[in-house]
């Protein structure tokens, strides 16, 4: 009986994971921009995949759908669900809540001071969000990630403050876009006030013509650098979702890698005549 139950759970989990990797019902996969996207990544000295979803036309555009369905550590893109869970559990009250610096040396000087929650999110302060994850705790984190259907995170006592940075946690570009769309279209089981606060955290650029919102991520899992830029772009009433995942071509020349992620998405939107 126990074996049957375990087998049933495994089958259900497999279906959930496969379902997240598959395109949304009725949506199409389009490679018509493959050459264009490849050239964009070439110019940024990276290899990888650009994935853009147009929900109005129900079309995914990418240069590499296999890459887009491959799981990688979420790195700092996990600050999105981490921030949501922090607000839903009242671990953080609002975006102006202060996260105190402990006085210890950090990787970047910009992290070596007290930061508001909004500043910590936008500065991608790893120690700040590690502290937040510890305060949330394993049980709350697991429960909320299950509720949010944020997949395949290895949450344990020994990994609670780093499971998104190293180890076995995985998320695909397809899953990133699925999560972002459910967030934006109010399909996540969260308070409207949490969603409104998150929209402010996300915002990168706002003009009279468009709004660009998103989060970058960068992980180094023992041997490989891996970079993300995920988010959404709104122009008038139209919304587009994007998820980029790339690796550097030359690990001895990393100066361009930090900016390459955002630059590549901007250029892709421009080439598609959206930006």
TrEMBL record:
GO molecular function: beta-lactamase activity; penicillin binding
Location of N6-carboxylysine modifications: 79
CC per GO annotation: plasma membrane
Keywords from the named record: Antibiotic resistance, Hydrolase, Signal
Keyword Signal annotated: yes
Top-level EC class: hydrolase
Catalytic residues in the record: 76
Protein name per its UniProtKB record: Beta-lactamase
Gene: blaOXA
